[in-house]
Fold this protein.
Amino acid sequence: MDISEHNPESRSGHQRGSHDARQRLLDRPHEYRGVGRGEVRASTVLASSEPPDGFTDDDVARFVRDQIAAGTIAGPDAGNQTVYGVVMPPGIKPDHAEGEHNTFRGHGQTIHYAWFANAGSLHALTGIMSHEIVEAATDPEGDGFIGVDGTCSQEGWCEIADVCSSAGVVDGVAVRSYWSDEAGKCIIPTASVHPKSARPLTMAR
């Protein structure tokens, strides 16, 4: 959902680590056309929602739209830079992938959202989240920083985390690597990464 962060100094050690890891991850993509520093806006837990197995992007978009309309979560910020992140209940499986970011039209503007499948492992979940959040920041609508044809073997958008397959731990939080044009390799902020496989990424701007 629409997520925000309070003062990390008032949090437990694990919460401080999670906050620090998010800030490190969200600081680095500035190399991509001046992407600014990200921050978490608010967090809401909705126990009444029961997405079905095999849910689709449209199911998630409808869910986010309904929560904004009901006032359960805040609407987009004035600059429309909000990405609504939806963590699924444990064991609920999507119709494809393990996470994705996308957009829909609502409330008179384009709404950005992402969803993350939850297999019950915190490390796996934060890895998926790091992958999708970095891509949502650098390619929110499929016309930002993407690889040219042939860079990725997968269908759909070929984005900066899709060409990297390694993972690491930042401040106690598991994250995945993404391609850095500056470094010319897959990186995790504050640490060099030696990916299992990565193709040099020629960016289409």
